[in-house]
Amino acid sequence: MKLEATLKEEFGYDTFRPGQRELIEKVMAGQKAMGIMPTGGGKSICYQLPATILSGLTLVVSPLISLMKDQVDSLNEVGIPATFLNSTVEWHDREERMRYIESGAVKLLFVAPEKIVDDEFYSWLSALDISLIAIDEAHVLSSWGHDFRNSYLKMVEPLQQLPGKPAWLALTATATEQVQDDLAQILKIPADNIVKTGFDRDNIALKIERGVDKSEYVLNYVKAHIDESGIIYAGRREDVDNIYEFLRANDVLVGRYHAGLSDQERHQQQEDFLFDRINVIVATNAFGMGINKTNVRYVVHFTIPGTIESYYQEVGRAGRDGLPAEAVLLYAPADLRLHQFFIDHSQGDDQYKLSLKNKLFEMSRYAETEVCLMKFILDYFGEKNSEICGRCSNCLDNREVEDVTADAQKVLSCVVRMNQRYGKKLIARVLVGKDDVADDWRHFEKLSTFGIFKDRTLKETSRLIEFLFANGLLRSSGGEYPTLLLSKKGLAVLKGQLNVAKKKDEQQVPDRKPMVDDGSFDVDLFEKLRALRLSFARKQALPPFMIFSDKTLKDMCVRIPTNSREFLAVSGVGKVKLEQYGESFINEIKEYQKAE
């Protein structure tokens, strides 16, 4: 059977996304391969499709326990037998599932890495006919990654010793070049078998808002997108609780998720969000690693994440269906102190802490840059020839530009006069002329730049220093106590060889137009089909996106299918979905046409 025919029959898609076919062919040939694809780029198809063809079992190892049930439910919904074994499964249910797997009736088994290093479970696993081992979220194998887990690394050798020489497939969405090389070495994957499709998410518009009233902005944003699903990430539990209560007090149907809640409440809040009983959830970054909800239209970061990897992974939870989505970062420099505190009090060694500090510096540069936001991220992940996206807040920024060359020269001159031995905080205090840095043994008050910004606030001065750093005029020394140094570009500015321009600060107003409304389909019909989907979802106790994604509903609104043949042509409709839902959705479309 042709791979495309299987793709359409089992999953309802006509064509493969970039990289999918190449990886599947390597897996089908029994090889070891690695796919580096963006979140929402279709990684799961790369092992799910081979699983339907290969004779044995596909073993999927994933650290995302909360995601396993969603993946299994989605597979069973399209007629592909799958199950999972992890710590949430009671012993009697576990025994029943294990006997079912032994019978050969299951095509995919999802397990947590901790299960692989359990001697009793490994002994049972060794007796199975395993054709493919898929390692999801593979970046956690690397100590250079942002979410390293030692238990994941311990499972590699036992997996390599499984009989039968199954094919291997490692998958990740957030891996720098250093992490990619590390994974290839750990898993012994040949360079020719590494497939990179790029990290660009061309349906996501990245936005940064600086210096805004965060709570008011969040309320206005949520109200502007009241019928769309979104996640609001905050750094601390108390922030989550405060935003949650604030939105509730303003009549928003909202949920919350953090480690301080009971297991029961966390589960209920997550279910409410997945099942569209609420559209908004406020959460710490503990939420989302296990969320496969495809119709999340926006992600708002109330607090800046500590690494670009974490940020982009969380951003990737929006727009997984390929339709337009937004990711808004509400940036305040003070938020960086929270991460600095966690780093200083972490259990890692000095090298690990230094790595986290360097990643935090890169995140702060991103938050202050005025270049294309997507290009900044792609450059970070090694895609050096990336072009501007044309859709982020920086690319679309039409604010007035002002020349700040003179102010930049004053800051750079102060850095030099302080012998390039101090950090942003002290430099700002010298520029403003604060009493606490005058008349001490360093005699900063004698510098010609002392108090040169005495008519400005510390906040304004710090923002200017951060802008110069983000745009490459200053660089960091790194280390435990990083200092600011002049770059070559900064030296050129100081010598008058280069001018510096900066956009004036203005808050942007949230757009109230639904993100998916691009004028290419009937939005009223789309809402009718959403309501029908919701009714099926509630009857079957499934999240609505497991019935059909928003992208599939949009395609129905474009194609207007009125018979089974036309309905099967809709993207995301396979043979099982046609049998289950075809008649009802076709009738809904016909009724809508009659009423027009």
TrEMBL record:
Domain HRDC: 519-596
Gene3D superfamilies: HRDC domain, P-loop containing nucleotide triphosphate hydrolases, Winged helix-like DNA-binding domain superfamily/Winged helix DNA-binding domain
CDD domains noted in UniProt: DEXHc_RecQ (cd17920)
Cellular component GO terms held in the UniProt record: bacterial nucleoid; cytoplasm; replisome
Molecular function (Gene Ontology), one example: hydrolase activity
Record-stated family: Belongs to the helicase family. RecQ subfamily.
Name recorded for this polypeptide: DNA helicase RecQ
The organism of origin for this protein: Companilactobacillus crustorum
